[in-house]
Amino acid sequence: MEIKRDKYLQDLINRMHNRMIKIVTGVRRSGKSYLIFHIFQNYLLEQGVPESHIIRIELDQRKHRKYRDPDVILEYIESCIRDQEMYYILLDEVQLLSEFEEVLNSLQHIDNADVYVTGSNSRFLSKDIITEFRGRGDEIHIFPLTFKEFMQVYEGDIYHGWADYMLYGGLPLTTAMKTEEQKVSYLTSLFEETYLKDIIERHHIEKTQELEDLVNILASAIGSLTNVPKIESTFRSVLRSKISGNTIRQYIEYLEDAFIIHKANRYNVKGRKYIGTPVKYYFEDVGLRNARLGFRQVEETHLMENIIYNELRSRGYAVDVGIVEKRRKDASGKAERKQLEIDFVANKGSQRYYIQSAFAMPDEHKQKQEKMSLLQVKDSFKKIIVVKDVVNVTRDENGITTMSVYDFLLKDNSLEL
To answer: Which long-range contacts (CB under 8 A, 24 or more apart) does 51-55 make?
Structure first.
């Protein structure tokens, strides 16, 4: 059964013929090539585009290595364009193409060409490249499968599906694997032999053990506030390593650049400003995170938080960690301030949602604890608590909505329930 990725197809359709380079980014094996060369190409054919007007080059395939030469690929593409009708140029793993900036600029000057490219890292979206393509590049970031997409092909109920998704994540190939051994081997090997190897080779890293240790530290700390000095202290005290803070900072940037992790900044809701460090890091795919730790640290509370974070980002929201201050008097009557955390502040245009990942609220004390930070926010934007339990969607007298993680992830309009 085919996994439909309708959101991303629609993103491409909405950008057709806009005179910009459509750049599809995402972590390796997230489905970029399938989106471009199967889903989108099939759409073009269904719309009556002749196959001869679809020029596709997969630069990571050995048979296409010659096209990594900028002059060779340009000559080939120009030879394929034989009339004034629209041609669709699909290039996979464009970062493998030498001088790709100049190639893409040249393609953009062909009046009857609509260009789509994919890449597995953001090297070609670095500051220099963004300057080069300012106003002419249009990024579409594709995530691993959401839980709803995952359940399209899962053979079982949502509860077993959640358990599998939380453990093995949403990389599309895992859905076709029948045994736990296959999934564990695939994810473990993928992280070691593809992701880390790519980073080490691309950036000529010599301290490979320190990079691996850093990944383990970040994987163990999802959902927890951290910063470079704290990580550096862990290296010194636990790992007996003298790696510098600058090197740690650089390695983290490499991991972000490869879309393995993503940073959530802290935002002062009342003060309307960003705070800076410490920050939180989440993994683009929880299966990869679990594989990195040998599937030994499977804390459902933290993984559920990571999954909710990824879901919000896949829906197009910018997501921060919210901070609000509560003022109260201590036992002596002296005024004191206490910082409370809102797991996620999700923004998209004029929309904003405050979201708590609570896992379980078994009693009144826990409910009060989870609602405390939300009650400090006095604006009119919606406040939501997501729990693991199967519950009816409810709204209390303070306007706080509580829903199950299944409703949140499986219903497209869950934020409006």
So the answer is: 52/80, 53/85, 53/86, 53/87, 53/88, 54/87, 54/88, 54/90, 55/80, 55/81, 55/87, 55/88, 55/89, 55/90
- Looking at the 3D structure of the chain, how many domains does it have? 3
**List of E strands, 300-372:** 318-329, 335-348, 351-359
Domain boundaries, position 70: 6-141
**Helices (H) and strands (E) in the chain — how many of each?**
17, 13
Q: For the segment 102-136, what is each residue's pLDDT rounded down to a tens digit?
A: 899 899 999 999 999 998 766 555 555 555 666 67
Q: Are residues 198 and 214 in the same domain?
A: yes
23/127 same-domain check: yes
Q: How many CB atoms lie within 10 A of CB 311?
A: 22
Nearest alpha carbon to residue 140 among 337, 28, 319, 7: 7
Please indicate, yes or no, if residue 304 is contained in any of the structural domains. no
Looking up tokens 């829906």 gives 315
pTM, 2 dp:
0.93
